[in-house]
Design a protein that fits this description.
single chain; about 325 residues; alpha/beta; 13 helices
Length: about 325
Amino acid sequence: MSILSKEEVRAYLEGRNDTELFARADEAKEQQFGKEIFLRAIIEFSNHCNKRCQYCGLRSPNRDIARYRMTRETILNATAVAAANDIGTIVLQSGDDFHYSTEFIGELVKDIRSRHDIAITLSVGDRDISEYAHWRKCGADRCLVKLETTDPELYARFRLGESFSERLQRVEALKDMGYEVGSGIIIGLPDMTVETTLEDILYLSDLKLHMLAAGPFIPHPQTPLASEQAGSIALSHRVTALLRLLNPGANIPATSALSALHQPSQGEALQRGCNVLMPSMTPEEHRSDYTIYPGKNQAHSTASASLTAARQTVISLGLEPSSSKGFSRRKDS
């Protein structure tokens, strides 16, 4: 494991030697994963959300987006398309939408498991621990629970009074259930500094998670943060590179937010420590409405175009798009 002192992390974070940092991160990634880049197919099955997060276009007070919920058959059809295209993992993602019952999601997971040899990741928000336990028994493999910031005051501010400790308890409980657990942060939210970002990196690394993500903040025009400045792509690249050095066996995606701000930056991230791409397989009639930030799902109008572009990006860099389920390689979680 690459060990960095706090001062070394700070120096890299401040951009004192990007060339060295990115080369080290790329080497660490290749030592663990070779040339493989794991592809995860995201199926964004609902944009309803009961949360009021200040940064997110899906926040419940937003009345200016077209809300949708996908049916069981539509979700299964999207999953079938992913499986037919040799995708090893699907990510079932939604806002915090309690319209879908514990039983519905459980039966959906069982049905997918019976039809396809594919890993199943859930990204469905603050559901009860007992629900996640049930879904684990049904066959779910992984969960994504983003922290967005590890500063409790910033967390409460941007998530409007919600408890950081409760979110963290959920992350730890999911690990104890045997899930592979992923989390991450947003880079460049208002009042974040080099120091808060440094603490985010160290905090996330101490959690010993299987997946770690960091993408730039993109202000959404229908949120209270509409007039704020976008996060830095360069800083986002530094953060994921540092996460790679501190967590060499973890899966680290090149986030879609990078592409939304500047399309080539997502490919650059794959040469700077990231080893995962997550193309959206959300059907055409819904993909433009999953507007967590501007530009989400805008580059490609169909699921097949999104997947083709992801594969072409990987191949153009001399890397190999993998059909593997892509489980974490870390040994210390």
